């Protein structure tokens, strides 16, 4: 199987997601696609489904009707409890040029386990081979990433806000920011919640890169 390309998508109500199925798998898919325009198609749904999607179409999913539901869809999600029906949804989605995520595999899109912090997100995927592995790794990563990483991101965003005016050459800007990330004294200041001290140290390093 070809390796997948990790991609982060911006959720927008201009992009339609059609989820086939109304069980807990479909529910979790809707939660993961929060922010998109989500339509659920199913004969019945679990409690709370209406809170995580934009509309619910109560209908028996017949293979002859799948293409009609996919009109205008950006991504289709095959989350029924039928492997055969999910395969039919996958085929229809591909025939219409729609991206597909399938609960039984074989789709274009895999939804990773994520560690979401204030300033960054880490995604983990086994690319469909062992579904139990990514959540385990994500929990381990979450334990390792303390609040100091968010604080470092705040510092970097502050430094980058007008960095182009002070360091005109892009390679030097990249080198400077890498230097900040590698500096143990700055990490120590951040861990000690001495943000002003971290800024002062960063500015002293920046002076060596500033354009004159």
Helix-strand category: alpha/beta
What integer is the average pLDDT?
95
> What is the total domain count?
2
Task: Estimate the global geometry from the Cα principal axes.
Answer: elongated
For this structure, the CATH topology of the largest domain is Rossmann fold
Structure description:
The protein is α/β, with parallel strands linked by helices and 212 residues long. It has two domains: 1-111, Rossmann fold, CATH 3.40.50; 147-206. It has helices at residues 24-32, 49-52, 66-69, 83-95, 133-144, 147-160, 163-166, 170-182, 184-191, 195-206, and strands at 16-20, 37-42, 55-58, 73-78, 99-102, 113-116, 121-124. A five-stranded parallel beta sheet has the order 3-2-1-4-5, sandwiched between helices. It has a two-stranded antiparallel sheet with strand order 6-7. Helix 9 (184-191) runs antiparallel to helix 10 (195-206). The N and C termini lie far apart (52 Å).
Question: How is the topology of this model organized?
Answer:
Elements: E1 16-20, H1 24-32, E2 37-42, H2 49-52, E3 55-58, H3 66-69, E4 73-78, H4 83-95, E5 99-102, E6 113-116, E7 121-124, H5 133-144, H6 147-160, H7 163-166, H8 170-182, H9 184-191, H10 195-206
Helix pairs in contact: 9-10
């Amino acid at each position: 199987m070809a390796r997948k390309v990790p991609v982060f998508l911006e959720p927008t109500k201009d992009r339609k997601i059609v989820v086939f199925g109304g069980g807990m798998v479909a529910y979790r898919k809707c939660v993961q696609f929060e922010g998109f325009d989500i339509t659920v198609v199913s004969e019945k749904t679990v409690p709370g489904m209406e809170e995580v999607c934009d509309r619910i179409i109560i209908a028996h999913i017949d293979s002859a009707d799948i293409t009609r539901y996919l009109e205008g869809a950006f991504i289709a999600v095959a989350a029924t409890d039928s492997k055969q029906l999910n395969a039919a949804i996958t085929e229809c989605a591909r025939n219409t040029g729609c991206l597909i995520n399938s609960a039984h595999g074989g789709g274009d899109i895999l939804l990773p386990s994520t560690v979401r912090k204030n300033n960054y997100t880490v995604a983990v995927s086994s690319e469909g081979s062992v579904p139990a592995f990514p959540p385990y790794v994500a929990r381990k990563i979450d334990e390792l990433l303390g609040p100091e990483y968010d604080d470092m991101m705040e510092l970097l965003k502050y430094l980058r806000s007008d960095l182009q005016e002070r360091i005109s050459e892009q390679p030097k800007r990249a080198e400077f920011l890498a230097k900040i990330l590698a500096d143990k004294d700055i990490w120590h200041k951040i861990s000690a919640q001495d943000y002003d001290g971290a800024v002062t140290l960063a500015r002293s390093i920046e002076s060596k890169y500033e354009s004159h």
